Amino acid sequence: MKELMVRAVYCEMLGYEASFSYIHAIKLAQQGTALDKRVGYLAVSLFLNESHELLLLLVNTVLKDLQSTNLIEVCMALTVVGQVFPKDMIPAILPMVEEKLNHPKEIIRRKAVLALYKFYLIAPNQVQHIHSKFRKALCDKDPGVMSASLHIYLEMVTKPESYKDLVVSFVTILKQVVGGKLPIDFNYHSVPAPWLQIQLLRILSLLGKNDRSTSEMMYEVLDESLRRAEMNHNITYAILFECVKTIYTIHPKAELLEKAAKCIGNFVLSPKINLKYLGLKALTYVVQQDANLALQHQMTIIECLDHADLIIKRETLELLFRITNGQNVKVIVEKLLEFLRHSKDDYRNISKGVYLPINECTYAPDNSWFIRTMNTVFLLVGDQMQPDIPNSFLRLLSEGFESAEEDQQLRLLAVDSYVSLLQEQPARLPQRFLQVISWVLGEYSSVKEGLEPATVLRLLAPLLDLRHCSSETKSWVLAAMTKLSAGPACLSVAQELAERHGGSLDTTLRQRLHELQHLASDGELLRRVLPCSDGLEPLEVDSTLSFLDGFVSEALAAGAAPYKPPHQRQEELAQEKALSVEPYGLSLPLSLSSSSIAGRLSPTVLSMSSGLSGNSTELSPKGGSALRLEGVTRVWGKEGYLAKAALKPEEAAKTEVPCPLSVLQEGGSAPRTPVVSLPAPAPGPSLQAEREKQQLASCLFMGLGSQGAAGPCLVRLNRSPPSAMDNLLCSSPLDSGSTPSPADSAPSPADSAPSPADSATSPADPAPHLPHDLPANNRPCDAQEDLTEDTDTSETVVEGNSVAVVDPYDPEPLCLSPHLPEELCGLPRSEIRPLCRDASLVLSACCVRTDHSSLLVVFVSNASDSAARRFALQMTSGDLEQRRIKEYPPFNGSSWSPGGSRPLSVSTEEYGRLWLASSNDIKQNLALLSQEPDPLRATLHRLRDRLQLNVVDIIASEGIVACQLLQGPPCLMHCRLNAGCLAVWLRSSLPELPDCLLYHCQRALAQH
Amino acid sequence: MINAILIFNNHGKPRLIRFYQYFAEELQQQIIRETFHLVSKRDDNVCNFLEGGSLIGGSDYKLIYRHYATLYFVFCVDSSESELGILDLIQVFVETLDKCFENVCELDLIFHMDKVHYILQEVVMGGMVLETNMNEIVAQVELQNRMEKSEGGLSAAPARAVSAVKNMNLPEMPRNINIGDLNIKVPSLSPF
């Protein structure tokens, strides 16, 4: 059997199906002797994945083996637990694994730690309570166990706040390791425990990021590691590389930086190719902070550009991309394009494609160059491109820049070039490019004078005949044609098209054609449906489809069946065991009217809305949000706008790297650095080559040194939304501080106003999540500042989460303690938390829960004794918005807080129905408030008060509780008294929700 | 974390695959093919790191590989692993194999695939590096091998009796568990 199993494993490896043997593998693990077990376990861990149903059969075996006295069996069981184990069964074996942490044998302890780590990864909520044991594992006397526990910490310190106290321990451990205090067994090529060192360094870099006091503790040991790691073996380089990265991540210290820079130099100049690669990587990482370094190594970088190894080449280009600025952009983009052209294989679509456009919109020197480059990019990368690139390109075209003139010019150029492209050979253009072309022509062909819409239509029409054209592309083309179809000439084209394609099997296509024909024949209707507006105001999409109400009631009156949401339908189907045709009753005739709302949006919206048109009486929130998400976000929706808008300044901040290089001569001559020791000039051709390289270098690194002299090329930079780099940035108080404010990511740009915000406050700041930039806000309280509000931002906030900004014009109360406006007084709220204060301003916030939303209330009060007349309050809500995106449509377990839920009032019968409709469930025992007279009631009421649940009913020793996500699905909880604890059973349609709610219940009951 | 460990020969025939993240069978084979395609094209004098296989994970992942005679050892890792560290881990793994098999070759991997897996289990567990000390790994594997022998010896007698009774009505089931090529050296009693 054993032998056979090994053969089955072999077969699977070669790609042949051997699923018949799975059950035998489990049987072998169950019944066999220890030897069979070993093969059985191995086969199981190779064959099955975590959600495989057969795995449940293994749980009992694992349980038995964990209790075994045979060391090997315990080992095997722990190994298999660490590789595959069903998530739902973790509670069953958790206590057993925990127990193993105290096992006398170190190998068992070590495997137990890793098994727990695995649990932490797949179900973090369930191992919440054993964090203290992890700490114990960290202090284990055996270094092996300790190093295993580092895996856990490496994962956990990505949220560094709660682990700052461990810095001292980590530093001590590293010090001991570096100092050679470990047993000699741990040496690898006479380096003490290198992998351990690498891991510790990573942890330290995460902990010391943006934290001065923590970083200070590390300096000494980092210095020590740098010193000890003598260059003799690969593994020391690994440690060095990690060291350098840490030094550049944590709060900088000049001495260390100097040493690290020297190390990077060694890497880059090394003849070993692996080290060169790492050196380039390090440079890429570092160049944001210290562009000087790139200048020092410019000749090496140039050599790497022509390296035979594609990977090295790619890394170099990435580095170049980082140092792009207005002056060298042409050369760098040229290099990037060249790379794209020559690399025919799979790498090409990976990252370069992403970088190019952002790159160009920020720095492009002139419009025609920009359009030309984008055309080349589209042609080269074509369909392998990530979809957001064409989207952002189109956004750029439609939103425009500072001056309207330039916009027009850009659009004109685009239209021009596209028309000529279409005239040549449209068949060879990639799909995405065709989509972009048709959109642009649809929107802007009117910009060009003398270009008749009919001509454009004739150009576009052949695209529909192309065989390789996908139906999505055809939809884009047709949408563009619809926009243009005015006048009799167009009508004939439209009719011709309708005749030719009217028989198409693709329903979307046919519908689109139909619309085209209608609109072309009726100019009045066309103007009404597709108004020619100049500005691109985001269209309001009525996601509830309320304008259809009249139609619905008519249809209902005429005898149509009311709409039922899908789950209800399914249930009914299941009950009746018969086909139901009801929902099809009213879907068809709606398509035209619904398309009119989508108007000038994208073809996807059109198809979405017509797909949704059956959704009538019940204004299902699901349908609504799907509409918003799928259709609008893609290009022109509000959310789309904003996500990008928030991104862009950061990008801009990153890419513009000012560099104070004093050696540079004025006038843009080649920046030669004194550090690069040029090889002695050899006679003849090599000298020539050398010169060429230097020329290239001077092109590439141009502008890196000459700060401030940005010149006319940087006009485009202004285009990035002004909000982020401005001084006033209020971030959400609920923010955990995980996203650094944009200002942190780059050294303050040379040409920005002298805002000392960063350096002045952040290091000493006690609470790391406070908005650093705030103090800049209050320098002139009496100055004339306008009440500026970033329109974009506030708009979405209201749309999504409806954040009410308590107006700073509100008369400040005399006592100056924050108080809520009257309409919010009665509502449940969190306590008012002070955010930050200084001599003149106090900022605090709280969260108020209404029935439909969570309000974030920010209080601004004047703490100085002078009267403040006017405030400028600007809210930039990148974080808020991020949270919203995270929380809502895709429910995210980790970021959810009880503030996002509302009590759900249902009757017991409805509850029963909902219960059946929800599919994801979880069971667990909770602690009971046993000292109360009526423990069940007391416990449930505590939960109700803490977590906003609704206690639906309590009957004898059972109770049912319900809540729902804000505009989201419900979660139901069934509780029963069982042997002194509360057995709860949670169900919801969202898979993560029960788990999450359970965790919060546990917490609510734990804190008395 | 390590996502996958692939060993294949110069012709792209897989010799050992171990995924620490679930992929469907089809996809696994596709990954192997793609990886082989990427790796085999590279000369010996270029760097040992590869970025941008499109199947596993995307841009966050890299392939780190070493080429020994007829075999490629490829580790697919995410950004939380150190490149050079993994490169040396491969070295440790290969040296361990060498120690356990005495001059390891491709055939050893074919005929003792289970053993290779056991050794790998001691080095990497669930995608995490468990042990990097060669002696320790060898000791663990030896310990398990010794158990094999004791299975056939005195201490395992009761267990064998039980299983014999269990299997009584299945006469075709092989009773003798010491099959062929599992190399057993010195018989000794289990320490526990």
Your description of this structure?
The complex is a heterodimer of chains A (about 1000) and B (about 190). Helices cover about 50% and strands about 5% of the residues of chain A. Chain A is α+β, with helices and mostly antiparallel strands and about 1000 residues long. In chain A, strands 6, 7, 8, 9, 10 and 11 form a six-stranded antiparallel sheet that branches. Chain A has a three-stranded antiparallel sheet with strand order 3-4-5, with no helix packed on it. In chain A, strand 9 and strand 10 (about 970-980) form a beta hairpin. Chain A is globular and about 90 Å long. Chain A starts with a helix and ends with a helix. In chain A, about 40% of the residues are buried. Residues about 345-355, about 535, about 580-685, about 705-815 and about 880-895 of chain A have low confidence and may be disordered. Chain B has about 190 residues and is an alpha+beta fold. Chain B contains six helices and seven strands; from the N terminus they run E-E-H-E-E-E-H-H-H-E-E-H-H. Chain B has helices at about 25-40, 85-100, 105-110, 115-125, 135-150, 155-165; strands spanning about 1-10, 15-20, 50, 60-70, 70-75, 125, 130. The model of chain B is unreliable at about 170-190 (pLDDT under 50). Classes of the chains: A alpha+beta (about 1000), B alpha+beta (about 190). At the A-B interface, helix 1, helix 3, helix 5, helix 7 and helix 9 of A face strand 2, helix 1, strand 3, helix 2 and helix 4 of B.
